[in-house]
């Protein structure tokens, strides 16, 4: 009983942290939730073969309300590229849907490695960013941007994130401010998390080793515990983001990703 209480408190704290980070970086919170859930699910008796899948699927479900709450706060401050999000309303979910059909055949270690590799590229960009590390001063034309949206949706489904990590890299590489990128990423989390959650439910439906309270690879009990705390903390993170200088926000984001990468690598090696 003590272990379960400790686990519940840990998940609640994870909700607070993930919600704050969702608002601060526009990342949906998956970058912190996935490693925590990978650690927590074995304590609930989840089979090791599906632990990573359960962590990613549950993380995506938690992102839905958190990303919505974060985006609303950012929009009130006049930030976010609403036009690009409208263009991505088809392309991002399409990438998510295709990835969802594949994810059930991919091992948990592959999910971890994809997560760590992509996060490392983004961390290097954020930590050592230079003025000349920009491809252009404006976003590319719509066909290219739509292709990027498809790719972000596809990769984010494997990583269990709301796409903010990838979109922040994309937009800042084309001359957009980190504040604008973060606000847009919060909206992107909504486009990704809804179809991705449905995809993970489908991919795990009927699996014989699912824990109690699960719909496919989404555990509703864990989500119900984390979501209220993440939604409470998301506006706080968004306000801090707009008060922080752009370069400092980039550095903090990069350092955060390095911590997450180290945790993921440890999971694979051990």
TrEMBL record:
The chain crosses the membrane at residues 6-38, 50-68, 88-105, 110-128, 148-170, 182-203, 215-237, 249-266. It comes from the Bacteria. InterPro entries: TM_pro_TauE-like. The keyword Membrane applies. Keywords: Cell membrane, Membrane, Plasmid, Transmembrane, Transmembrane helix. It is a multi-pass membrane protein. Its main location: membrane. The keyword Cell membrane applies. It is found in: Cell membrane; Membrane. GO terms for cellular component: plasma membrane. Belongs to the 4-toluene sulfonate uptake permease (TSUP) (TC 2.A.102) family. PANTHER family: MEMBRANE TRANSPORTER PROTEIN HI_0806-RELATED. This is Probable membrane transporter protein. It comes from Pacificitalea manganoxidans.
